[in-house]
Amino acid sequence: MEKREQLYSGKAKSVFRTDYADKLILHFRNDTSAFDGEKIEQLERKGEVNNKFNAFIMQKLSAAGIPTHFESLLSAQESVVKKLTMLPVECVVRNIAAGSICKRLGLKEGIDINPPTFEFFLKNDALHDPMINEFHIRSFGWATDEQIKQMQSLAFKVNDVLKALFAKAGLLLVDYKLEFGVYHGQLVLGDEFTPDGCRLWDAQTRKKLDKDRFRQGLGGVVEAYEEVAHRLGVDLS
Ligand code: ADP
Ligand code: UDP
User: Fold this and answer.
1) What is the DSSP letter of 107?
2) Mean pLDDT over all residues of the chain?
3) For residue range 157-204, what is the model confidence (pLDDT) as tens digits?
4) Residues 108 and 192 in one domain
5) What pLDDT score was predicted for residue 169?
6) What is the best residue among 11, 50, 57, 100 to mutate for testing ligand 2's pocket, by most ligand atoms within 8 Å of CB?
7) For ligand 2, which residues put their CB under 6 angstroms from it?
8) Residues 78, 89: one domain?
9) What's residue 218's pLDDT?
10) Which DSSP string do the residues of the chain spell out, in sequence order?
11) Using one digit for the tens of pLDDT, what is the confidence trace for 99-133?
């Protein structure tokens, strides 16, 4: 496969065209950002850890029958993926209260959310990714009714698979963000599943092992991601 020109460079990944019209190369960079790009740092090894972590999780999800864009690992920091037409929404599933829902609803961090809840956000940095609902998505044509239903049902299926996977590694899956896109007419999970886009706590101590370590200046960010990877059995070599 030939790597062609860069199509896009986001906050953490760069996207390249390839000699296959329907395949892209995702390059996971070391850049780490928070608060809509206000706080940015380079964290050694993060690109590589996230690339390998994402490959591991996407393969688990595929094996459980969830369609994903992941094709193969290409290099330490690059993967080949299907080229999706991304839907401009972010899907968040929450099992335990943390982050924005605590501020928005006045919840204490750490309380169980039962049953798990689901939220849509508009993917728009300039507007700070505002929370939206299904009616907005339909009215403004960001996705069809069918796609809305599929995103919700796939997002909860991901929850069943990953809650169990992380539980076996002594971890709580607190919340996570997913992005979907369309590939030859089919809704497919895209983007990434890494500790940059989810919250993971040690089940015993509730130590944070995700990007909140960066957001909150707790230190040991990549070390925490590596600990999670090791506990899951992700090959980081
Ligand atoms: P952001 O755009 O939020 O700064 P990233 O730095 O992670 O985020 O950039 C990656 C971009 O690539 C995102 O905009 C994401 O929606 C997009 N993307 C992820 N997977 C695919 C895919 N399979 N096909 C097309 N675009 C994708
Ligand atoms: N998230 C993300 N990208 C975003 C916003 C949120 O990956 O642009 C993830 C975040 O890491 C967390 C979940 O989605 O795992 C819920 O985030 P929340 O709404 O609590 O916002 P935050 O506290 O991250 O601002």
Assistant:
1) P
2) 98
3) 999 999 999 999 999 999 999 999 999 999 999 999 999 999 999 999
4) yes
5) 98
6) 100
7) 90, 92, 99-101, 129, 175-177, 197-199, 211
8) no
9) 98
10) --EEEEEEE-SSEEEEEESSTTEEEEEE-SEEEETTTTEEEE-TTHHHHHHHHHHHHHHHHHHTT--BSEEEEEETTEEEEE--EE-SEEEEEEEE--THHHHHHTPPTT-EEEEEEEEEEE--GGGT--EE-HHHHHHTTSS-HHHHHHHHHHHHHHHHHHHHHHHHTTEEEEEEEEEEEEETTEEEEES--STTSEEEEETTT--B-STHHHHTT-S-HHHHHHHHHHHHT----
11) 999 999 999 999 999 999 999 999 999 999 999 99
**Does residue 234 sit within a domain?**
no
Residue that has been written with the tokens 């760069």 in this structure: 14
Domain harbouring 36, CATH code: 3.30.200.20
Cα dist from 209 to 113, 121, 192, whole Å: 20, 24, 17
Q: Which residues line ligand 1 (CB under 6 A)?
A: 8, 10-13, 15, 24, 69, 81-84, 86, 179, 181, 190-191
Measure 82 CA to ligand 1 centroid, in angstroms.
12
Please state the domain count of the chain: 2
Range of the domain at 69: 3-82
Tokens of 153: 């049902």
Whole-model pTM? 0.98
